């Protein structure tokens, strides 16, 4: 399997080098190629072991080409992606396609307004696809930004968990967070003389029948303001036919920074509140720059007890719907996370992370290394180690089959990126 990704990556590098060196691609702005490797293990009681064995191996390649054209206040942006995936997780995704906890192997436009993804070919252990992850028209003046098309928006003050960022947030344990997935939307921003601003977003989607309806639309209005040396956010939104109200902000506490958000959602059953609060601090330690983050997250949609049985999930429609849509990534209610970034050298960072479920005592320990090998090359690597007994979130959820858990063991990830 490794030779496939090496061949694909080398071929893409050759094509890009030729085009880039000769300036043959019009309107080309920048791009990258990433080659990825993931090896994961599965304990003896894991149900996934029946499909992929004790150890799974996956490889992937991504080519991203960013194009941009400007004229006066108008601009057009388009980001093309070529994606290749090889390995065991494709079979795992197929075998457990109905399980809301299993993410898709590649992005899909089945529920997006525009279908800008084309699957080139696929098999049990391979899929090749191409897509446009950004495609939007912009108008920019001194105080106004208007943008229509496929784009990404990031809101909220959480550094690890972010309940206010309900449009394609990153998994808290994601290692590569360079690009969020784009959605098809209208975005507007108006800047006030004070430096505060208003932002409006309207995201169009398709329902299960493929129809564009208001029931799956998201519309949000957010105000970002400044006052008394503090920043604050106020948000009103209608998201999948549910009303949302949120507020948050950030302030200094000595040399540290405190951030937080509170989000209220009017679900068919009742109002649900979620919140996040974080503390961050940077200092110099032994001649090395160090940054620390401590964060608490209350997931109002999570299960109230540490009983994560299939029967409990069957009753938690609001939770499973949000996990399936990629808005949430945790099943419990109370979480504590910590992160430490150590700058070993200006080009090499080591980042240990811990994600703790306070309800069941399970955790995910993660060690990330980021090395800027040269001006255009970056190596990103991580080791993930789930901790906890059977029946817990990170130790392995109950599958409903006696003695079998939805569990995974330690995993190793590596990614080499070339930027041009």
Description:
The structure is a single chain. This protein is mainly beta and 420 residues long. The protein is 11% helix and 51% strand. The strands form two sheets. The protein has an 18-stranded antiparallel barrel. A two-stranded antiparallel ribbon has the order 19-20. The longest helix is centred in the first third of the chain and has 20 residues, at 2-21. The radius of gyration is 22 Å and the shape is globular. The two termini are 27 Å apart.
Report mean pLDDT, rounded to a whole number.
92
Structural class by helix and strand composition: mainly beta
Order of helices and strands: HEHEEHEEEEEEEEEEEHHEEEEEEE
The level-1 CATH class: Mainly Beta
Evaluate the radius of gyration: 22 Å
């Amino acid at each position: 399997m490794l030779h496939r990704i090496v061949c694909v990556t080398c071929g893409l590098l050759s094509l890009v080098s030729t085009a880039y060196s000769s300036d043959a691609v019009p309107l080309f702005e920048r791009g990258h190629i990433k080659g990825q490797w993931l090896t994961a293990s599965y304990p003896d009681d894991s149900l996934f072991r029946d499909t992929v064995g004790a150890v799974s191996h996956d490889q992937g390649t991504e080519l991203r080409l960013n194009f941009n054209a400007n004229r006066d206040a108008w601009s057009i942006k388009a980001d093309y992606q070529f994606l290749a995936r090889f390995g065991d997780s494709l079979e795992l995704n197929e075998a457990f396609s109905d399980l809301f906890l299993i993410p898709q192997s590649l992005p899909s436009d089945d529920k997006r307004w525009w279908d800008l993804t084309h699957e080139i070919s696929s098999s049990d252990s391979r899929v090749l696809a191409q897509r446009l992850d950004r495609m939007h028209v912009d108008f920019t003046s001194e105080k106004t930004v208007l943008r229509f098309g496929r784009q990404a928006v990031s809101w909220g003050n959480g550094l690890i968990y972010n309940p206010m960022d309900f449009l394609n947030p990153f998994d808290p344990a994601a290692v590569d967070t360079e690009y969020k997935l784009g959605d098809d939307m209208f975005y507007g921003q108006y800047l006030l003389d004070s430096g505060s601003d208003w932002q409006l977003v309207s995201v169009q989607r398709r329902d299960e029948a493929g129809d564009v309806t208001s029931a799956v639309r998201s519309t949000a209005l957010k105000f970002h303001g400044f006052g008394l040396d503090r920043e604050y956010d106020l948000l009103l939104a209608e998201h999948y036919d549910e009303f949302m109200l949120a507020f948050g902000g950030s302030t200094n506490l000595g040399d540290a920074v405190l951030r937080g958000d509170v989000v209220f959602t009017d679900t068919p059953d009742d109002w649900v509140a979620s919140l996040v609060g974080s503390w961050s601090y940077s200092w110099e330690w032994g001649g090395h720059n160090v940054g620390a983050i401590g964060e608490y997250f209350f997931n109002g949609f999570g299960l109230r007890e540490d009983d994560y049985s299939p029967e409990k999930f069957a009753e938690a429609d609001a939770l499973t719907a949000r996990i399936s849509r990629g808005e949430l990534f945790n099943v419990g209610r109370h979480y504590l996370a910590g992160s430490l970034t150590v700058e070993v050298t200006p080009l090499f960072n080591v980042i240990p992370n811990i994600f703790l479920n306070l309800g069941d005592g399970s955790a995910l320990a993660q060690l990330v290394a980021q090395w800027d090998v040269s001006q255009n090359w970056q190596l990103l690597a991580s080791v993930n180690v789930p901790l906890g007994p059977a029946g817990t979130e990170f130790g392995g959820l109950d599958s409903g089959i006696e003695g079998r858990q939805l569990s995974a063991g330690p995993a190793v990830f590596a990614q080499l990126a070339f930027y041009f």
